[in-house]
């Protein structure tokens, strides 16, 4: 693969991605409700990654605005913490992840530690260019892209008809709640915040952001970056949780392997076998007629619903 490929907003994808980058003892957990208790129930939370439909009128700011719609620009923080401008398509998921990990006092492994050291002191634009040009990080990122025999979306320009989605990171650094979005000019501060206060304050920030979208918009996804839940389970001797988490890891591993494979050829061969068997047994014509009748019935039902 060349360039940066699109990856899914998925806890299993992100967890195994950072493991491949050498980050230990961290996992991602999908949050299904905007409820602070959902975050409080997790072991130590380092931040959240928020995926949303990119609606210019609902984003934190426009290119020419003097202030964000929520919070305040913190230009000094752009120099003091890891903040990178996004300089390439499809990298925003991994960039949001790094915006959290590289701003926490945790073991991020040798690959990311070397990258952080290399970019320390760089302006945000150059940090973004350094990330875009990191072959090691890009190669790991791309191993989690879905295999497809069709159009490579990264090779064509975006159009106004495309549904654009974007990832941003929220995390606490130096007792402030920051929104770290590579498309913005600087980190956005949402005020003083301790790590203990983070669950309550981040939910409030996200609720305000989502409220700017039209009614019925549901294309959001929230992932918490948290300590590996198996660590606390081992400390507490909670065998049930440990078993459940190990099983979840196995499921994630299986799903990630499936993402890497192209099943179109297999499906075509399977269909050929079915057709050949139907012809051999004399059931082909009846099989096709039955399928056609069912398709027409579904179309008629849909048309009726539209009229109603």
TrEMBL record:
- Sites marked Transition state stabilizer: 86
Q: In this chain's numbering, which residues are marked as the site (Important for enzyme activity)?
A: 181
Annotated CDD domains = Peptidase_C12_UCH37_BAP1 (cd09617)
The enzyme's main class, written as a single word, is hydrolase
Q: Which GO terms describe its cellular component?
A: cytoplasm
- Record GO biological process: protein deubiquitination; ubiquitin-dependent protein catabolic process
Q: Does the keyword Lipoprotein apply?
A: no
Q: Name one GO molecular function term.
A: cysteine-type deubiquitinase activity
Task: Report domain UCH catalytic positions.
Answer: 3-227
Q: What protein family is recorded?
A: Belongs to the peptidase C12 family.
Q: What is this protein called?
A: Ubiquitin carboxyl-terminal hydrolase
Organism (species): Ascobolus immersus RN42
